[in-house]
């Protein structure tokens, strides 16, 4: 079973309210919402919008997504994390997504890695005290840019609050097998990101500088089952004896139409009826 969410970041360039997104999510057959922390911060002046409010609509916030700092004063990161934990409590969420730095694992010196691990340990301890888990995302140009680098980081931090958000496409981008990644990291994977691309040469479309820009290229971004990676096989491979939490991370145009159709097709994959008329 897959507990499926939309990402509010898909609507970062759209004038859409949270009640409108929640209504859409419920009607599209989604189970939850992955709330971008930038959006959560802007919603703090509307306290009636909360986890309890979403629950009444049959939804929940599956994860808050942000970017904790791994350089600069430690106090700044602690302050950011304190705010994240407070927002997570407001939205009845326990998962906080971040990136493991901004440097590829192969380019990270031993000292830099030691400092990143130390900061992650502190973040994990702080999150744990607030009842939250910290999920590092598998992503290029971070310390979690491959299966082995991610496992090494988990072992180095060695804290029960450290989990993984497995971005399936980014593992494939690293020329590794996402199914193998799942089996090797299954105890730590608490969330999945689903997105696809038409061809490998278009993967740069997901580079942060491009994807967050309103004027950025969307070339190559395609619905989940029309891309270069075989998501049908990945989804069918997931064990049926546990609930899998996943988000449709769509960055292209027409987000409502694409997200609704991808959700519909995922449900069909789960019942062996993909793309039936």
TrEMBL record:
<dbReference type="InterPro" id="IPR036237">
    <property type="entry name" value="Xyl_isomerase-like_sf"/>
</dbReference>
<keyword id="KW-0413">Isomerase</keyword>
<dbReference type="InterPro" id="IPR013022">
    <property type="entry name" value="Xyl_isomerase-like_TIM-brl"/>
</dbReference>
<protein>
    <submittedName>
        <fullName>Sugar phosphate isomerase/epimerase family protein</fullName>
    </submittedName>
</protein>
<dbReference type="InterPro" id="IPR050312">
    <property type="entry name" value="IolE/XylAMocC-like"/>
</dbReference>
<dbReference type="GO" id="GO:0016853">
    <property type="term" value="F:isomerase activity"/>
</dbReference>
<dbReference type="Pfam" id="PF01261">
    <property type="entry name" value="AP_endonuc_2"/>
</dbReference>
<feature type="domain" description="Xylose isomerase-like TIM barrel">
    <location>
        <begin position="24"/>
        <end position="266"/>
    </location>
</feature>
């Amino acid at each position: 079973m897959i507990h499926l969410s939309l990402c509010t970041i898909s609507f970062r360039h759209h004038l859409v309210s949270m009640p409108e997104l929640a209504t859409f999510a419920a009607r599209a057959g989604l189970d939850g919402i992955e709330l971008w922390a930038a959006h959560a911060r802007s919603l703090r002046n509307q306290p009636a919008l909360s986890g309890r409010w979403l629950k009444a609509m049959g939804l929940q916030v599956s994860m808050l997504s942000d970017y904790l700092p791994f350089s600069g004063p430690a106090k700044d990161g602690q302050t950011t994390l304190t705010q994240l934990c407070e927002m997570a409590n407001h939205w009845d969420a326990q998962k906080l997504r971040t990136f493991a730095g901004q440097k590829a694992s192969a380019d990270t010196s031993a000292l830099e890695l030691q400092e990143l691990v130390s900061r992650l340990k502190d973040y994990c301890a702080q999150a744990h005290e607030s009842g939250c888990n910290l999920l590092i995302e598998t992503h290029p140009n971070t310390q979690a840019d491959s299966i082995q680098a991610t496992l090494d980081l988990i072992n180095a931090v060695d804290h029960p609050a450290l989990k993984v958000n497995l971005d399936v496409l980014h593992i494939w981008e690293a020329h590794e097998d996402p199914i193998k990644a799942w089996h090797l990291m299954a105890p730590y994977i608490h969330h999945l990101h689903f997105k696809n691309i038409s061809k490998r040469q278009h993967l740069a479309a997901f580079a942060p500088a491009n994807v967050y820009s309103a004027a950025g290229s969307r070339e190559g971004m395609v619905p989940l089952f029309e891309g270069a990676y075989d998501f049908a096989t990945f989804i069918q491979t997931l064990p049926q004896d546990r609930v899998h939490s996943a988000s449709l991370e769509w960055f292209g145009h027409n987000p409502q139409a694409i997200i609704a159709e991808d959700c519909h097709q995922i449900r069909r994959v789960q019942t062996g009826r993909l793309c039936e008329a």
